[in-house]
Write a structure and sequence with these properties.
Number of strands: 39
Distance between the termini: 183 Å
Membrane topology: Single-pass type I membrane protein
CATH topology of the domain at 9-21 and 61-262: Immunoglobulin-like
CATH superfamily of the domain at 9-21 and 61-262: Immunoglobulins
Strand content: 25-35%
Helix content: under 10%
Number of helices: 5
Subcellular location: Membrane; Secreted
CATH architecture of the domain at 9-21 and 61-262: Sandwich
Structural class: mainly beta
GO molecular function: calcium ion binding
Largest sheet: 7 strands, mixed
Keywords: Calcium, Disulfide bond, EGF-like domain, Glycoprotein, Membrane, Repeat, Secreted, Signal, Transmembrane, Transmembrane helix
Pfam families: EGF_3, EGF_CA, TSP_1
Length: about 625
């Protein structure tokens, strides 16, 4: 709590200008033939002494660029009052509100086209003239240990939870754009500051001033403690008290009150204000000395429209249209189109539309948003489908896809449906189709009751070849021998000949053999064995170049080599022939004398037919011998 020390009380007449441009010296420039730009004012040139020609010139308003005559360009970033309708009085870059101590108030500014501009808030303390300075204090968010009722700056909003006595005019609050690298107060929060008259007349567009006023205390003359009131003495007076403020040097404005001094309009007097010399004015009732106001509203003599309300005033009454209507209340009450008022439109969310109604308006969220119009949240919806993906194949109907995205995930909503859609590529030629075999048919019956063959078939139509595709590889028919039953004899069959064995000798004439077996098939169920030999042989080794060594090549006379081993008998049974060979080794001499081949008869075993003949022959000889012996020895 601040203890106020009465130091000086000053009564001054006050009034607030609502002009958007104050140019008190405009006539001086025009007198010099200068026509200032509409966004410029006429100012005195400090270089020339007062009274001399060319001592005034045109200068653009603060923060505007130009020569002041031909052009003045507005700054790219500026501030303005966010809600002018909340102001009781407005001026150039200023807003004044009527409030009471202890109430809460909120100041708001906006920067059209630059929503993220940095804004600083200040409080201006008026010093007691003429000995004390005025000060400017930079407002910062309160710390945890500081009172919660102090002003709270937050971006473009300043909240004063509890209005104090020192918050009223002429003390001021203002918002100011802080550019990058700009430092307006240095390192100190409170600095001496003089709000120049030029800034008061034409404030910079980078600032917006806010002032608080109390309702004037109504006072009627001559009971007010001013004597000899003249006509010009009636009006509003301000009482100001200066004292010390914690954190601010000197004597500053700590409290103020306004007084409205009005005339007694209840009667008109001719001479002294007594019964015999005065008569009550219209709207008052009395004997001339005492005149009472007639309450036209209660007496139901007020002529207001049915929808308007009647408010009694001193000596008269006022008809007031309902909220949301404008007019005099007597002849007209017309609906106010709040949506045409920029201030009211700003009450709606940026994603809402203002809808005018009789006496009011509605804020309705735009399509694709939900909420009450003051707060709108985007509804999650699907984006349009993306183009179909490119086809990777050049024929047929390969698949392709397209996708879409569910927007505004911050809403917490889910979009209904799939985020991916699959289709097929169209307009491509058919792809070649290779043929495919069906499954094999069942086996057909065997061609013979004992053995024979059986057959099955398949067709190339699963699928059939199409569009230039290949026919099925392989055979359409398949055959196999039938398995014989135990009552059917199976004759044996030779296998293919095996590979030749290695030669029996290295240097000379040898032999090599190959074999086969009677197992394709094997004889079964009393079937016949294979006919023919199971072994086959041939000569080998007589032309082996490794058999001619260096000694043989250097020999002068020809020399026979060693005889080879005897070959196999030419027949496997009965009388046959076998042979052996030798090589003639020579260099330059004549050929070897003698034969290089030698043969002799051979027999591996007797053939079965010969054995039978020999047996029959031996039997006949035996019987002849027995008969001979019987004749010799009867």
């Amino acid at each position: 709590m601040h203890f106020l020390t009465p130091a000086h009380i000053l009564l001054i007449s006050v009034g607030l200008s609502v002009s958007q441009k104050n140019d008190p010296d405009a006539e001086r420039c025009r007198g010099q033939g200068l026509v200032c730009h509409e966004s410029a004012v006429c100012v005195r040139d400090q270089v020339y002494p007062a009274g001399l020609e060319q001592s005034y010139y045109c200068r653009c308003l603060p923060d505007w660029d130009g020569d002041g005559i031909n052009n003045c360009v507005a700054p790219p970033i500026f501030l303005k009052v966010a809600h002018p309708s909340r102001c009781n009085e407005t001026g150039a870059q200023s807003c004044f509100m009527t409030k009471l101590p202890g109430q809460e108030v909120q100041f708001q500014v906006k920067s059209p086209g630059a929503p993220n501009v940095t804004v600083q808030w200040f409080k201006y303390f008026v010093g007691e003239p003429p000995n004390f300075n005025s000060y400017r204090k930079l407002l910062k968010p309160p710390e945890k240990e500081e009172p919660e009722d102090r002003p709270i700056p937050e971006g473009g909003t300043l909240t004063i939870p509890h209005i104090e006595e020192d918050d009223f005019y002429q003390n001021l609050y203002w918002a100011e754009i802080l550019t990058d690298g700009d430092s307006t107060v240095g390192t100190r929060a409170v600095v001496a500051f003089d709000l120049a008259e030029e800034e008061r007349l034409n404030p910079s567009p980078s600032r917006v001033y806010f002032g608080l006023e109390t309702k004037p205390i109504e006072t009627k003359g001559p009971t007010f403690s001013l004597s000899h009131l003249n006509e010009r003495d009636f009006g509003v007076y301000r009482a100001e008290m200066f004292g010390r403020k914690d954190g601010v040097p000197g004597m500053e404005l700590v409290a103020t009150r306004r007084f409205n001094v009005t005339r007694d309009v209840s009667k008109t007097c001719d001479g002294p204000r007594s019964e015999g010399h005065c008569k009550c004015n219209s709207g008052f009732l009395g004997n001339g000395e005492h005149c009472a106001d007639i309450d036209e509203c209660s007496a139901e003599i007020a002529e207001c429209l049915p929808e308007a309300s009647c408010r009694n005033t001193e000596g008269s009454y006022r008809c007031e249209c309902p909220t949301g209507y404008r007019g005099d209340g007597r002849t007209s009450c017309e609906d106010v189109d709040e949506c045409a008022d920029e201030d009211d439109v700003t009450r709606c969310h940026a994603d809402a539309e203002c809808v005018n109604t009789l006496g009011s308006f509605l804020c309705e969220c735009k399509p694709g948003y939900m909420g009450n119009g003051r707060d709108c949240l985007a509804i999650s919806t699907w984006t349009p489908w993306s183009p179909w993906s490119q086809c990777t194949e050049t024929c047929g109907h390969p698949p392709n896809t397209r996708v879409r995205v569910c927007t505004h995930p911050e809403s917490g909503m889910r979009c209904e449906g799939a985020s991916l859609e699959q289709g097929v590529c169209r307009g491509l030629p058919p792809c070649p189709v290779d043929g495919g075999w069906t499954v094999w048919s069942p086996w057909a019956p065997c061609t013979a009751s004992c053995g024979g063959t059986r057959q099955r078939a398949r067709t190339c139509d699963a699928p059939a070849p199409a569009h230039g595709g290949r026919y099925c590889p392989g055979d359409m028919y398949e055959s196999q021998p039938c398995e014989p039953s135990p009552g059917c004899a199976v004759d044996g069959g030779w296998t293919q000949w095996g590979a030749w064995s290695a030669c029996s000798v290295t240097c000379s004439v040898g032999r090599r053999v190959r074999t086969r077996s009677c197992s394709n098939p094997r004889p079964r169920y009393a079937g016949r064995y294979c006919t023919g030999p199971n072994t086959e042989q041939e000569r080998c080794g007589e032309h082996n170049p490794e058999c001619y060594g260096k000694e043989s090549l250097n020999a002068v006379d020809a020399v026979w080599g060693e005889w080879s081993e005897w070959s196999e008998c030419s027949h496997t049974c009965g009388l046959g022939t076998r042979f052996r060979r030798r090589l003639c080794r020579r260099h330059l001499g004549p050929t070897c004398s003698g034969e290089n081949t030698e043969q002799q008869p051979c027999m591996v075993e007797a053939c079965p037919a010969e054995v039978e003949k020999f047996g029959q022959h031996m039997g006949r000889q035996h019987r002849w011998r027995e008969q001979t012996q019987a004749r010799r020895h009867p």
